[in-house]
Amino acid sequence: QARRGAGTFVKERPRLRRMTRAWYREHRGGSPFRAEMEAQGLHSRRDWQSETVQAPVAIRERLGLDEPDDGLPDVMRTVYVFYAEHEPKMLSTSWEPYALTKGTPIAFPEDGPYADFGVVERMHVIGVEISHASEIGSARPASVDEARLLQLPVGALALAIERTYYEDARAVETADILIPV
Predict the structure, then answer these.
(1) 19 CB-side CA count, 13 A
(2) 80, 92 in Cβ contact below 8 A?
(3) Secondary structure element (H or E) that encloses residue 149, with its range
(4) How does pLDDT run across 13-32, given as a tens digit for each residue?
(5) Residue 49 is inside which H or E element, if any?
(6) pLDDT in tens, 121-132
């Protein structure tokens, strides 16, 4: 990049990092993201915020939820920012049907004895066996909020993944995942 009167600046090429997108792993007792980063010798962490909300129409459709008739929250939404070596590497917004997890030790994904476990392992705790997952990938510009969280320029291109976990035909979790390219 050249700036008049200031000179020419060369940005270091980012080091490529493997971001494995495996929906199922053997039961390991922890986060698949953390395990992948550790396998690459990287320190990782994540920030999150969970709350019960009413699902947006698109999420309601992905989870096969009926239209709410009482105005009460019907999903647990958790927003994650995943970091490797203190740099944000991935965003994920997850929705789980609250009727499925309410009153169980996994109701709040990052609290309790199963905090830091992946979805497959957490659901197993309450007798829900994930049989398969669906992922739809696309590329799109990051929104203003997403760019801020990922420390990217507004409009930077990102890989968008719409993932849904199923127990047979029943959707038990869906997530929107965003990874900078």
Answers:
(1) 17
(2) yes
(3) helix 144-150
(4) 655 555 554 544 444 556 77
(5) strand 44-53
(6) 999 999 999 999
